[in-house]
Amino acid sequence: MITFSQVTKRYRGGTEALKEVSFTIETGELAILSGPSGAGKTTLLKLIAAIERPTQGSVLVHGQNVGKLTRGAVPYLRRNIGMVFQEGRLLFDRNVFENVILPLRIIGMPHKEAAKRVRAALDKVGLLHREKAQPITLSGGEQQRLAIARAIVNRPAILIADEPTGNLDPEYAAQLMDMFAAFNQVGVTLVIATHDPGLAARAASRVLHLRDGVLQA
Ligand SMILES: Nc1ncnc2c1ncn2[C@@H]1O[C@H](COP(=O)(O)OP(=O)(O)OP(=O)(O)O)[C@@H](O)[C@H]1O
Ligand SMILES: [Mg+2]
Q1: pLDDT: is 76 or 22 the higher one?
Q2: Are residues 73 and 160 in the same domain?
Q3: Domain of residue 42, residue span
Q4: Is the Cβ atom of 13 under 6 angstroms away from ligand 1?
Q5: What pLDDT does residue 203 have?
Q6: How confident is the model at residue 151 (pLDDT cuts 50, 70, 90)?
């Protein structure tokens, strides 16, 4: 489902964030991406979602070479990929409900069905009672859950998450991991970057460890 073949990513300025990285993640896996700060975890996730393109090598998602997509094709790829990034990218001038419905509006889903989906997603992350709240009034952990609701509302086949437990206390981080494991059980393929692989080891079917842009054997 996700295959990297000899992928090198060099940023402008010369940093090699990934060096000849090759791996495959099969449909239905829960893969953990670990490694110290600067190892290339965020870069790897961005390549999956075509936010960045490889300098060399190929990234296949669902058999599609995502490094070679035209601008117009990228939104279609993203419909199948839910993304939770380090900086939540919430819209602070809209309430919780409006934040989550946005991806469904973009694809033109009728309001009634979209609203149903939004409430189901908010319920999954335990935020249904806050649907009218402004994001700024939510705690860090609640904002993170809001970002997850928005990422899953489209029922993507793949969910990528960058340090989703970063700012959370251990108990809540464990709950969030259980939530990811539950998504995985209904068939979602997950790729989760974390500094704390111990947390996720239980649920993971694969651990990819990066150091200085090199995938460790
Ligand atoms: N847009 C960019 N332009 C130039 N260099 C970048 C860019 N993004 C990342 N880098 C560099 O690429 C390397 C890998 O960065 P990346 O963000 O992928 O690491 P990371 O493993 O996610 O780190 P962290 O755990 O701190 O989030 C770092 O040396 C970083 O400085
Ligand atoms: Mg990162």
Answers
A1: 22
A2: yes
A3: 1-80+156-217
A4: yes
A5: 78
A6: very high
Pocket test for ligand 1, best of 19, 21, 41 (most atoms within 8 A of CB): 41
What pLDDT does residue 164 have? Answer: 86
Read off the tokens for 105: 């509006």
Kindly report, residue by residue over 168-190, the tens digit of the pLDDT: 778 878 888 888 998 999 999 99
Query: Based on the domain organization, do 99 and 200 belong to the same domain?
Result: no
Task: Name the pairing type of β-strands 81-84 and 158-162.
Answer: parallel
Residue nearest to atom 6 of ligand 1 (CA): 11
Same domain, residue pair 13 and 76: yes
**What's this model's pTM, rounded to 2 decimal places?**
0.92
Distance CA(95)–CA(98), nearest Å, equals 5
Same domain, 165 and 203: yes
**Residue 35: is it exposed, middle or buried by C-beta count within 10 angstroms (0-12/13-18/19+)?**
buried
One domain for residues 127 and 164: no
Q: How far is the CA of 40 from the centre of ligand 1 (A)?
A: 6
